[in-house]
Amino acid sequence: MELNRRSVLAALGAGAAATLTGCGSSASAGGGSADGPAKGEITLLTPIFEKASGKKLLEQDILGGFRKKYPDVKVSVDYTTYAQLNEKITTAMAGGLLPDVMMMGVGWIPPFAAKKAIAELPESLATAHAYEKRVLEPSRFGGKLYALPVVLDTRIVVYRKDHFAEAGIKKTPANWSELRAMAKQLTTKGRVGFDPFSIDLRQCWETFLFANGGSLFSEDGKKVLFSDARGVEALQFFKDLQSDGSADYAKKTELGAPTNIQTGKTSMMMSTSALWQQLKEENPELLKSDKMGAFILANRKPAMLQGGTLVTQAARSKHPAAARALVEYLAGPEAILGAAAQRGSVPGLTDLGSAGAAYTKENQFVDLSLKNLGNARSEGGTPAWMEIREKIKPTLEPAIVGGQSAADAIANLGKLAEAAIARM
What we know:
Strand content: 15-25%
Largest sheet: 10 strands, mixed
Oligomer: single chain
Mean pLDDT: 91
Number of helices: 18
Low-confidence stretches: 1-31
Distance between the termini: 50 Å
């Protein structure tokens, strides 16, 4: 069943288009109380709602519904990308002018909460809708709630059912030993058996770390845990795949190009739930002929990396009641389903009525992700995360493309992370 635009808008409760006028919030101004009436001009900073379709969805449908509910609030939207988001927020903090409402990535809450840039939210919001407990964990810092989930972007393994059938493989791998053996069996001229590298190397290694039973940091975020044997083994597995010839870092999908799984250049690939939407638009024949499948990576335990977008409120908004109202609305059923469907992402809410059920049923990668939220793990967990995250790829890459050992690369990353935490 295909979720059409009409059913999405019905779930959104779409209203008139929002009035968009410019306004900001001063980081030096008093924060005030969010208990008063929602009114005033506020700014929303978002790295999602891409392209013309995303902008229309946000400004007309989602903010149209918000404007209908809160007619005294005017919202100005500042669009950016995840590649530029951290710099944009940091620059705004330094200049004393943060947007009233900000959408951030999973793992970002501890760093900005520790800097007192974002406001604590009432705990009652955590139970206002059917949020999974696991989904709310990245929204907390020090046991307090600072954000709410909007959409999730999970990391799963996508595979070609037709390639498996041709090779006589009847089940998906239960551990790394089976994964490595299948990758070898599926590798042919012009095709690698497994492509783990077409997603961000940081997120790829983290997924393997979690599947190996490892962790990034201690619960309080003060101790590095990934530099043990399980982190080394995760990176070594990439080297082993390359030495087998069943994976190749140099053959990862180029930015903006069809993925290797779409073109048949790989039989298995690390990907996100959003790939289903891309397949629907670019290669619908692969879905219609049931050639695409997906499974959760596992070794010592099954693990699915859970990224995504959270919404939070600036600590010093000039209009805190209006900002709080927008945070609640963007993390509610009126907005979440539309945002998820536009991106092919996992909704941050489990109960979205018949339209949500239709979307979940139609997008099988989203369905798989929702069924495995109990196995989901998130990156981050320390106030030093924004510094550490930028160092993971360049520190681990030499072990994959060069001669450095996995143990040395992980040890170097561990030292960098320990130094970053010590500076907090």
